[in-house]
Amino acid sequence: MKSSGLAATLLVCIVLAGPSPGAGSPTAASSPPVLPDSWHGSIRSVRTAEKVVALTFDLCEGAKETAGYDAGVVAYLRANGVKATFFAGGKWLRSHPEQAGQLLADPLFEIGSHGWSHRNLRQVSGKAMQEEIDLAGEILSALRPKPPIGAAAGPPLFRFPYGTCSSEALAYVNSRGVAAIQWDVVTGDPDHKVSAAAIARTVSGAVHPGAIVIAHANGRGWHTAAALPLFIPRLKAMGYRFVTVGELLAMGEPVTVTECYERKPGDNRRYDRSSQ
Ligand SMILES: [Zn+2]
Fold it and tell me: How far is residue 142's CA from residue 157's CA, in Å, rounded to a whole number?
């Protein structure tokens, strides 16, 4: 059975992680936090006058694959003190325990959920959809270091695999007190034909106060690491600073829509044919 298999996998992961200080953090059994009304829906950016931008990197891993880890991306961000948000799949967290632990422990970074095994949640519904969301959130909570006493924990964040959602899945994520984070600047880094210079041009040209940029750090972003030194200094010269998505959300009202899409409504329907 798929569900019991996933549950057993999660149990193994938690046991392997040991009784962490975060074991008391929210679980499926506790009542979820309430999401502010204005955070409901698919968040594409944040309205703010400040020159801030949130870089996001997805750590995707499907059920039948083992994805990678783009150490060059992380090394550049660390060397230059650039804050970023990673959206990690539950299965990716399990297959990359060392890197996951390092990312989760680094105060420069924020880690949100990218579902359990990168299923297309526009096509998966009911209990299977809920499991993809809940199990990923649970392993993330189990692995996440407990914040110091008195420190404010950031809002729980979720990014839909493929950037696809149904209204049912979007409502379910929000009902769990979790913000669904999309983007409004697309690097296009999964396409090997998109060069580092092209990524840099895209980001530099599309950036605006409150922008959310999507890229990848699971080894599937072809020229991502090479693009960072091209556009990050440029954005800094333009007066921008880098914040996590959680910090960005605290700086203004989110721009939300009722559908999940890449650049315009319906443009990611192609994933419905090839993904489950
Ligand atoms: Zn992904």
Answer: 15
CB 215 within 8 A of CB 242: no
Distance 218 CA to ligand 1 centre (A): 9
Matching residue, tokens 């680094």: 106
At residue 198, φ and ψ (nearest 5 deg) are -65, -40
Helices and strands (H, E) in the chain, number of each type: 10, 10
E-strand stretches of 62-167: 84-88, 109-113, 157-158
Cα gap 188→135, rounded to integer Å:
28
List the structure tokens of 216.
Answer: 């990848």
Architecture of domain 37-146+154-274: Alpha-Beta Barrel (3.20)
Residue 119 CA to ligand 1 center (angstroms) comes to: 9
CA of 173 to the centre of ligand 1 (A): 16
- In angstroms, the CA 193 to CA 130 distance is 36
Residue 112 CA to residue 196 CA, distance in Å, equals 26
Per-residue pLDDT of the chain (276 residues), as tens digits, is 444 455 444 444 443 333 333 333 444 456 777 899 999 999 999 999 999 999 999 999 999 999 999 999 999 999 999 999 999 999 999 999 999 999 999 999 999 999 999 999 999 999 999 999 999 999 999 998 887 777 767 789 999 999 999 999 999 999 999 999 999 999 999 999 999 999 999 999 999 999 999 999 999 899 999 999 999 999 999 999 999 999 999 999 999 999 999 999 999 888 887 665
Given the structure tokens 């204005």, which residue do they identify? 38
